[in-house]
Design goal:
globular, two-stranded parallel sheet, single chain
Length: about 170
């Protein structure tokens, strides 16, 4: 089980990139890998006020690649910290990718179950995908132009499964 994460000990972007490298994420293979627990990496990223988009784009890959991560711990801690909509959105994107790609097929069933669990805990308040400093004009634009999935999870984000380099 990963150590409890608090805002005080959340990893920064450089640490997260090294941890993603340690998990085998191809987008950060040039970095020195750091040993990491996939559930803790995802939660650390979700707790960021302003996460670099290239780090956010890696998170569905983690969920696809590590379908047996400690989901109970991750979901519980996401709910305790009020970031379950962020997690639910990423799980839904990962599930979309799993449905398209044979090599991720084993993750589809697990992601579907987790998505249902998070659906029951979905928050009504709107949030960003770790971009709290997003300008009001961008929020306004995204409110009208975000994907149906982002709208469902009450997130202001332009991220879609099709944009991810590993979706092809």
């Amino acid at each position: 089980m990963p150590e409890p994460v608090s805002r005080a000990n959340v990893a920064d972007g450089a640490q997260l990139a090294g941890q993603l490298s340690g998990l085998g994420y191809p987008g950060f293979s040039h970095l020195r890998p750091r040993k990491a627990n996939p559930a803790a990496v995802v939660l650390d990223a979700l707790l960021q006020n302003d996460l670099e988009s290239r780090l956010a784009e890696a998170l569905p890959w983690v969920l696809l690649t590590y379908p047996d991560l400690d989901w109970m711990w991750l979901v519980r801690n996401a709910e305790l910290r009020g970031v379950q909509n962020r997690l639910g959105f990423l799980v839904a994107i990962a599930k979309t990718l799993a449905a398209r790609r044979l090599e991720f097929g084993s993750a589809f069933t697990k992601l579907s179950a987790i998505e249902q669990q998070l659906e029951h805990a979905r928050l009504a308040g709107e949030d960003t995908l770790c971009r709290e400093s997003m300008p009001a004009a961008e929020r306004h634009w995204l409110k009208a132009h975000r994907s149906a999935l982002a709208r469902h999870w009450n997130l202001f984000t332009g991220l879609t499964a099709d944009q991810l380099s590993y979706s092809r």
